[in-house]
Amino acid sequence: MNPARDLVVGYVSALGVTEEAVRAALPSLVRLADLLGLVRSRRIVRRGEAGGYAYQVHGAGCLFTAQDGTEVDVDFAADGTEIFDLWRLRWYGQSLPVPLTPTADELRAAVEALEPLLTEVRPGWFTVTRGPVRPIARDLGDGSPNASS
Q: How far apart are CA 107 and CA 56, in angstroms?
Protein backbone atom coordinates (compact mmCIF):
# COMPACT_ATOMS: atom_id res chain seq x y z
CA MET A 1 0.00 0.00 0.00
CA ASN A 2 1.34 3.42 -0.99
CA PRO A 3 -0.76 6.29 0.42
CA ALA A 4 0.81 8.89 -1.88
CA ARG A 5 0.11 6.81 -4.98
CA ASP A 6 -3.41 6.09 -3.74
CA LEU A 7 -3.96 9.82 -3.28
CA VAL A 8 -2.77 10.66 -6.82
CA VAL A 9 -4.86 7.88 -8.35
CA GLY A 10 -7.83 9.00 -6.25
CA TYR A 11 -7.45 12.60 -7.41
CA VAL A 12 -7.31 11.59 -11.07
CA SER A 13 -10.35 9.36 -10.60
CA ALA A 14 -12.27 12.04 -8.70
CA LEU A 15 -11.44 14.59 -11.39
CA GLY A 16 -12.82 12.24 -14.04
CA VAL A 17 -16.01 11.55 -12.09
CA THR A 18 -16.46 15.26 -11.42
CA GLU A 19 -15.97 16.11 -15.09
CA GLU A 20 -18.56 13.54 -16.17
CA ALA A 21 -21.14 14.78 -13.66
CA VAL A 22 -20.65 18.48 -14.43
CA ARG A 23 -20.67 17.93 -18.19
CA ALA A 24 -23.90 15.91 -17.90
CA ALA A 25 -25.48 18.74 -15.90
CA LEU A 26 -24.22 21.46 -18.26
CA PRO A 27 -24.50 19.99 -21.77
CA SER A 28 -23.00 23.13 -23.34
CA LEU A 29 -19.61 22.15 -21.87
CA VAL A 30 -17.31 20.50 -24.37
CA ARG A 31 -14.62 20.26 -21.71
CA LEU A 32 -14.40 21.24 -18.05
CA ALA A 33 -12.33 24.34 -18.86
CA ASP A 34 -15.37 25.79 -20.64
CA LEU A 35 -16.71 26.69 -17.19
CA LEU A 36 -14.34 29.67 -17.23
CA GLY A 37 -15.89 31.04 -20.42
CA LEU A 38 -19.42 30.51 -19.13
CA VAL A 39 -18.60 32.50 -16.00
CA ARG A 40 -16.80 35.26 -17.90
CA SER A 41 -19.76 35.60 -20.29
CA ARG A 42 -22.10 35.63 -17.26
CA ARG A 43 -24.03 32.61 -18.52
CA ILE A 44 -23.45 30.92 -15.14
CA VAL A 45 -22.49 32.30 -11.75
CA ARG A 46 -18.96 32.04 -10.34
CA ARG A 47 -20.19 29.86 -7.45
CA GLY A 48 -22.94 27.36 -7.92
CA GLU A 49 -23.92 23.73 -8.20
CA ALA A 50 -23.77 21.36 -11.16
CA GLY A 51 -24.10 17.61 -11.30
CA GLY A 52 -24.18 17.20 -7.53
CA TYR A 53 -20.99 19.23 -7.02
CA ALA A 54 -20.59 22.71 -5.62
CA TYR A 55 -18.21 24.64 -7.82
CA GLN A 56 -16.25 27.85 -7.40
CA VAL A 57 -14.47 29.26 -10.44
CA HIS A 58 -11.22 31.04 -9.55
CA GLY A 59 -8.59 32.64 -11.75
CA ALA A 60 -7.50 29.91 -14.14
CA GLY A 61 -9.36 27.05 -12.52
CA CYS A 62 -12.18 25.70 -10.44
CA LEU A 63 -12.70 24.10 -7.05
CA PHE A 64 -15.30 21.32 -6.97
CA THR A 65 -16.72 20.03 -3.70
CA ALA A 66 -18.51 16.68 -3.56
CA GLN A 67 -21.41 16.05 -1.21
CA ASP A 68 -19.06 14.26 1.21
CA GLY A 69 -16.83 17.36 1.40
CA THR A 70 -14.06 16.01 -0.83
CA GLU A 71 -12.48 18.84 -2.80
CA VAL A 72 -10.97 18.60 -6.26
CA ASP A 73 -9.23 21.81 -7.31
CA VAL A 74 -7.97 22.01 -10.89
CA ASP A 75 -6.49 24.71 -13.09
CA PHE A 76 -6.69 24.92 -16.84
CA ALA A 77 -3.83 25.63 -19.23
CA ALA A 78 -4.35 28.15 -22.05
CA ASP A 79 -5.49 25.30 -24.33
CA GLY A 80 -8.03 24.05 -21.76
CA THR A 81 -5.95 21.13 -20.54
CA GLU A 82 -6.69 20.17 -16.94
CA ILE A 83 -3.56 20.68 -14.84
CA PHE A 84 -2.74 20.25 -11.16
CA ASP A 85 0.18 20.66 -8.81
CA LEU A 86 1.33 19.03 -5.59
CA TRP A 87 -0.56 21.62 -3.51
CA ARG A 88 -3.85 20.60 -5.17
CA LEU A 89 -3.06 16.95 -4.57
CA ARG A 90 -2.37 17.61 -0.87
CA TRP A 91 -5.55 19.71 -0.57
CA TYR A 92 -7.54 16.85 -2.08
CA GLY A 93 -5.95 14.35 0.33
CA GLN A 94 -6.72 16.50 3.36
CA SER A 95 -10.37 16.85 2.29
CA LEU A 96 -11.03 13.11 2.06
CA PRO A 97 -13.40 11.57 4.64
CA VAL A 98 -10.31 9.73 5.93
CA PRO A 99 -7.55 12.27 5.21
CA LEU A 100 -4.34 11.26 3.50
CA THR A 101 -1.37 13.53 4.24
CA PRO A 102 1.75 12.40 2.40
CA THR A 103 4.63 14.82 2.13
CA ALA A 104 5.36 16.82 -1.01
CA ASP A 105 8.35 14.54 -1.68
CA GLU A 106 6.17 11.42 -1.41
CA LEU A 107 3.61 12.97 -3.77
CA ARG A 108 6.31 13.99 -6.25
CA ALA A 109 7.67 10.43 -6.23
CA ALA A 110 4.16 9.02 -6.73
CA VAL A 111 3.47 11.32 -9.69
CA GLU A 112 6.83 10.48 -11.26
CA ALA A 113 6.16 6.76 -10.78
CA LEU A 114 2.91 7.15 -12.73
CA GLU A 115 4.64 8.54 -15.83
CA PRO A 116 3.88 8.20 -18.74
CA LEU A 117 0.22 8.22 -17.67
CA LEU A 118 0.83 11.59 -16.01
CA THR A 119 3.01 14.24 -17.60
CA GLU A 120 4.76 17.25 -16.11
CA VAL A 121 3.63 20.04 -18.44
CA ARG A 122 5.68 22.76 -16.75
CA PRO A 123 7.75 22.67 -13.57
CA GLY A 124 5.55 21.35 -10.77
CA TRP A 125 2.36 21.11 -12.88
CA PHE A 126 0.95 17.84 -14.16
CA THR A 127 -1.76 16.54 -16.46
CA VAL A 128 -3.21 13.22 -17.44
CA THR A 129 -1.34 12.23 -20.60
CA ARG A 130 -4.35 11.08 -22.56
CA GLY A 131 -8.05 11.65 -22.17
CA PRO A 132 -10.61 11.44 -21.06
CA VAL A 133 -9.48 11.31 -17.44
CA ARG A 134 -11.70 8.50 -16.23
CA PRO A 135 -10.25 5.70 -18.41
CA ILE A 136 -6.79 6.72 -17.25
CA ALA A 137 -7.89 6.24 -13.64
CA ARG A 138 -8.77 2.65 -14.52
CA ASP A 139 -5.30 2.21 -16.06
CA LEU A 140 -3.75 3.46 -12.83
CA GLY A 141 -5.44 0.80 -10.73
CA ASP A 142 -8.33 0.60 -8.35
CA GLY A 143 -6.71 2.32 -5.36
CA SER A 144 -9.02 5.32 -5.21
CA PRO A 145 -9.45 6.57 -1.64
CA ASN A 146 -12.47 8.59 -2.80
CA ALA A 147 -14.99 5.87 -3.54
CA SER A 148 -17.98 8.06 -2.63
CA SER A 149 -17.58 10.64 -5.43
A: 25
Average pLDDT for residues 52-68, to the nearest whole number? 96
Over residues 94-130, the pLDDT tens digits come to 999 999 999 999 999 999 999 888 999 999 999 998 6
Secondary structure letter of residue 127 according to DSSP: E
How would you classify the pairing of strands 125-128 and 53-58?
unpaired
116, 121, 127, 130: CA torsion to nearest 10: -50
Euclidean distance between the first and final Cα of the chain, in Å?
Answer: 21
Cα 145 from chain centroid? 14
The dihedral formed by the CA atoms of 87, 69, 28 and 13, expressed in degrees to the nearest 10: 60
